[in-house]
Amino acid sequence: MTAPRLTIDLNCDLGEGAGRDADLLPLVSSANLAAGAHAGGGEALETAARLALAHGVAVGAHPGHADREHFGRRELPITPEAAAAEIDAQIAAVACVAGAALHHVKLHGGLYHQVGRDRALADAVVEMLAARWPALVVYAAAGSTLAGVARTRGLAVAEEAFCDRRYRADGTLVPRESPAGCIDDPSEAAARAVALAATGRIQAADGMELPLAADTLCIHGDGPRAVAIATAVREALRAAGIRVQSPNRPWKNSPSQPERGR
After folding, report:
1. Which of 30, 73, 103, 175 could covalently link to 11 via disulfide, CB atoms 3.0 to 4.6 Å apart?
2. Could you tell me if residue 251 is inside a domain?
3. pLDDT at residue 261, rounded to an integer
């Protein structure tokens, strides 16, 4: 059994136009800000970044497919070179707002799952991150190909699990289209958060126990009960003696800006 954690990160996808950013930011420790491809951008990005920094919340870039109609959740065909270039551009858009405070990168939706499992995509993206954004923490699904490749390349990695989604026994998420895919009960989400942080295990949708060691737990900011879930999760972690805290960057004094001349 995994030893109980003293701290864990609580991250949330924000700047997506759901209208809950101001209520969610006091409750989380990391914010993944949409760059405008799948949602957000412009004023929404600037407002979310300003609020995150005011609350001492770690600011991250949240690149996704340029598919606003489907909120970036479809898996679309993409080459490794195109994936790396698209992610680089979206990180740069968030960096223009966050500056040296930019802390991490977490992919979104369909792109998250594709790069998370496809070795060629993961290799290309990680190579770009190592060259252009080496000071960013890579938030990636626990046990994913992306997490392994990034760690091998020397990047800081925070492995992620979801409080508000259910898992299959193989560690993949139950599809959103399934009635069992998403969790909207704050007490259930809170219990799962504590189980993940305290034991590194969780019950899969079929009842089997699934090992899932995570450094960061995600709440989707566009969910209709996102604020209630974040409130319940935060309180349950506090009651369990687990402090909510964002992961450290690999080089605290190094600004997260791309290296020039590459």
Report:
1. 30
2. no
3. 30
